[in-house]
Amino acid sequence: MKKRVRRLIISGVLFVAALVTGFLMPESWVKPAAFLLAYGVTAYKVLFKAVRNISYGKIFDENFLMAVASIGAFIIGEYPEAVAVMLFYQVGELFEDYAVGKSRKSIADLMNIRPDYANLKQADGTVEKVDPDQVKPGDIIVVRPGEKVPLDGVVLTGNSMVDTAALTGESVPRDVCEGSEILSGCINLNGLLEVRVTREFGESTVNKILELVENATSQKAKTENFITRFAAVYTPAVVITAAVLAVIPPLVAEGAVFSDWLYRALNFLVVSCPCALVISVPLGFFGGIGAASKIGVLVKGSNYLEAAAYAEYVVMDKTGTLTKGVFEVEKIMPRGELGKEEILRLAAAAESNSSHPISQSLLRAFGAEITSQISDVEEIAGHGVCAAVDGRHVLAGNNKLMELKGISYEEVSEAGTVVHVAADGQYCGYILIADQLKEDAAHAVAGLKAAGIRTVMLTGDSESAAQAVGAKLGIDRIFAQLLPEDKVRKVEELLAAKSEKGRLVFVGDGINDAPVLARADVGVAMGGLGSDAAIEAADVVIMHDEPSKLLELMRIAKKTLSVVRQNIVFALGVKLLVLILSALGFANMWAAVFADVGVSMIAIINSMRVLKIK
Amino acid sequence: MKKTYLLEDLCCANCAAAIERGVAKIEGVKSASVSFLTTKLVVEAEEEGYDEVFKQIQKVVKKTEPDVTIKEI
């Protein structure tokens, strides 16, 4: 790189010297000699490559085109242009290489989550550094503060905070302690951990992510395929036009001068290189994929990023996507003398020995240790629990339990599970337990609607539960009580209903909805961290459990597409304009150089903006 | 069967596209994709007679971009 820069600086100095000479002594033989010297120093490498590549049978090689254009210019006496074409062509190449190198480096940075080693604990208690590949499930590894966690596993001893930002884009560190699951690719911040490995490296989270991102650019977007096909036609077409332009008019038209038309044809050769187009499109998409992975959204290919920008329908699963999928106490309604606290305490105490999810959420809501005296616990399946709590006879359960025990209760029509509580034969009130909405679910749905996207919710839950969630979030259409195969059918109906250009995005938690993920134009799995099935089945994986990341993904997708479009329109527009002006004799070779190198540079700089999207 | 190769010193986007087109045309190759940014060539081909296919791939790469060296990974 440095060598190339030095050579180009020398070329530049010689070029300026030749220009000055030409200005001072326009008629002298010194002028062409000075330019020839500058040309030789600037061009010898390109000329060498041009000749060598022809011997390999490569036609329409850009080195060859530039060589012909500049030598032609020299022959018809346009010395400054001849040198300038070569000089700027190479400056452009250098810049292109720099930009590409920079983008490649940003991939490498992304790949920085690849662990280099694992500290394997031996049978005799000593620790040895080994390749993560060699560690087997069941082995014990030591992770010191500041080190990357090399493999997935379970913490055996130690407490620490781990930074999961590289995996999820989540900046708040996570606490781990004995028994916690820990994922490869996280960084251990402060404590010494011993981890029992659960999966080999090939199967580990970090390796899955790396493979995914590395392979993302091989799934190409339509725009990308269009541009490479276009380039394959563009160059030959321009070169053939150039040949026709040089030969036909001087033969046919009266008074046409050969050197004049040759000059126009040479301009064509300079403009014929399609690199500006071909490079800026994938560079833009790559930037988009990179920007998305920075916020914890993995996109499996440019095509999916492109499709996300055209989203017309966003179909969402309810449980686990819009709601947490965890049942929590929503409210406590006292209907007697006892207060909320007391009702919850009695219910939690009565259910404290049960492992039923409802009991668990009561205990979580109570939050403290149960200190009451509990005896005579009787669980009636499908009804609830009877128990003696601190000497009081407590009933906690559904309508059926109340009826069974002959207690009059309040009918509740709200969505969720109702736990009625009675003490010593007196109705105390009820506790409503419901699935909780995710904090950002409303924001996500509102954002989608603001972007003109139709929102649809599918769920296997009851109509009333679905309506309650749907109404709270303002979702356009709701379909409830669906079996997994019904979900596929609904998505197919919607696919048929959408417009030609619009795309259907399905968002699910990756459990049980693999067929729908596959059927949708873009299948998005949420909460992919640690779930292989989701990473496998989806086109896009949102690593952290936030539906609002969908909005960010779409923003990035739209921005990427607009940058790519700007590049295509700009590059094609300028090239076409310069070609027309050249054919008419209005554009000189400087304009052609700009249409080639200048446009490339501007397009690349524009593409690199995408990577910076926050 | 899928094979991945590293194309070292691949520095022109148009050449990457040309290599992709060239390799895809080889008989026995089901699909080919060159990522200019990771400089990787991914080929999907029949297992049988792959040696001959690989020779053809090398030929295409040499012809399209003489500076590139192909490495198996």
Describe this structure in words.
- The complex is a heterodimer of chains A (614) and B (73).
- Chain A has 614 residues and is α+β, with helices and mostly antiparallel strands.
- Chain A folds into four domains: 2-107 and 219-283 and 561-611, no CATH class; 136-199, Calcium-transporting ATPase, cytoplasmic transduction domain A, CATH 2.70.150; 301-322 and 438-543, Rossmann fold (3-Layer(aba) Sandwich), CATH 3.40.50; 324-436, Calcium-transporting ATPase, cytoplasmic domain N (3-Layer(aba) Sandwich), CATH 3.40.1110.10.
- In chain A, the strands form four sheets. Chain A has a seven-stranded mixed β-sheet with strand order 10-22-21-20-11-18-19, with helices on both faces. A six-stranded antiparallel β-sheet of chain A has the order 2-1-3-9-4-7, with no helix packed on it. In chain A, strands 12-17-16-15-14-13 form a six-stranded antiparallel β-sheet.
- In chain A, β20 (503-508), α17 and β21 (522-526) form a beta-alpha-beta unit.
- Chain A starts with a helix and ends with a helix.
- The mean pLDDT of chain A is 85.
- By secondary structure, chain B is α+β, with helices and mostly antiparallel strands.
- Chain B has a single domain (2-72), classed as 2-Layer Sandwich (Alpha-Beta Plaits), CATH 3.30.70.
- Helices cover 38% and strands 33% of the residues of chain B.
- Chain B contains two helices and four strands; from the N terminus they run βαββαβ.
- Chain B has helices at 13-25, 50-64, and strands at 2-8, 29-35, 40-45, 69-72.
- In chain B, strands 2-3-1-4 form a four-stranded antiparallel β-sheet, with helices on one face.
- In chain B, β2 (29-35) and β3 (40-45) form a beta hairpin.
- In chain B, α1 packs antiparallel against α2 (50-64).
- The longest helix of chain B has 15 residues, at 50-64.
- Chain A binds chain B through residues 52-53, 56-58, 62, 93, 96-97, 100, 103-104, 107, 214-215, 217-220, 228, 231-232, 235, 273-275, 278-279, 282-283, 286, and chain B through 11-14, 16-18, 20-21, 33, 35-40, 42, 62-64, 66.
